[in-house]
Amino acid sequence: xxxxxxxxxxxxxxxxPRHLTELRRDLWNDxxxxxxxxxxxxxxxxxxxxYRGAHTRKAKKKSYFINHAGRKKVxxxxxxxxxxxxxxxxxxxxxxSFKFLDxxxxxxxxxxxxxxxxNGKYEGIYLKLESVNEDFAEKHRLNPCSIIxxxxxxxxxxxxxxxxxxxxxxxxxxxxxxxxxxxxxxxxTEFIVFVNTATHQEFEKRITEYINVRQYLSWLAGVVCLQNxxxxxxxxxxxxxxxxxxxxxxxxxxDATFGRDVNGTDMGAEYVRIEGYNxxxxxxxxxxxxxxxxxxxxxxxxxxxxxxxxxTPMIDDLFAQLEPEVQGDPYVGKYVQxxxxxxxxxxxxxxxxNDFLSRELSNRGWK
Length: 367
Prior knowledge:
Layout: E1 9-14, H1 17-25, E2 33-39, E3 43-51, E4 64-68, E5 79-83, H2 93-103, E6 111-118, E7 121-130, H3 134-139, E8 145-150, E9 175-179, H4 183-197, H5 200-206, H6 213-226, E10 236-241, E11 247-251, H7 279-285, H8 288-305, H9 308-326, H10 336-363
Parallel strand pairs: 1-6
Antiparallel strand pairs: 1-2, 2-3, 3-4, 4-5, 5-7, 6-7, 8-9, 8-10, 10-11
Helix pairs in contact: 2-9, 6-8, 8-10, 9-10
GO molecular function, one term: kinase activity
InterPro entries: Spore_coat_CotH_CotH2/3/7
Keywords: Kinase, Transferase
């Protein structure tokens, strides 16, 4: 349950010394190793564990990907992620982002905090995060669908790489089929070609064949408010509805939000422009009717939802849940004071970001 009233449960992972040594030998090995999970000293599950993430693998506190052996489902899921939140001094940016995105009508992964142990040794507070996979689709009644992950910065809906600006050798660079039919990748290729080659008139007329435009613009407005710089070309999933043949976009991994980047550095409140980034967003906002929809969504968010009045109770709720537990996290130590200062930092960011975006709306005549 996504609620700060819920107590933080224990999750213990038992792994043999040989497999634990193997896990720790190579940070970049994605091959899962056998383990046993015990949830709250009750539910025992055979599973597999591996490190997850990119730059986070170098952190002292590791993040993990866990799947149940034989794809067995426990409480409706066969796999999940354990995020260390090591570079987020608040421990709450992912959770707070998903609460906000859920509030504005987007479909988001389920999350909950857990106290994680490996062979009985306490590893600290983790965010247990639902995978966007077939279980996710079934739970949200999105079947039948195929799911494609945006796995790096090349998932920018462009013919050119976002990483080195060269022409892509393969338009599917940055994307990976998570579940469903391989034909979804063909549809995505066709979509990317259309986005980059259609005339202005053709784009306006036919773009809804490929994507739910209002849902995408809602997502864009949310990412812009939260200032998730990576979120425009990374940290999302595309779900292809096999009945409508339309894509919808699902947010994922939002720890670099509310004024801090992936390393926890202060970004300021004016770092990300109001239009966001990526080729698809630029083309949509070049169409007057779509720009007006986006402006309306943004105005509504800044008036009613992305405000200190609305989000402060969420921040205080999460802090109240986390504060008694974070002090005992073995990787926090001297940073407890920084954790206690973060709610104020986030609230100040929300106000400053709201002010900046409101000025941008006014300057563009979008009010």
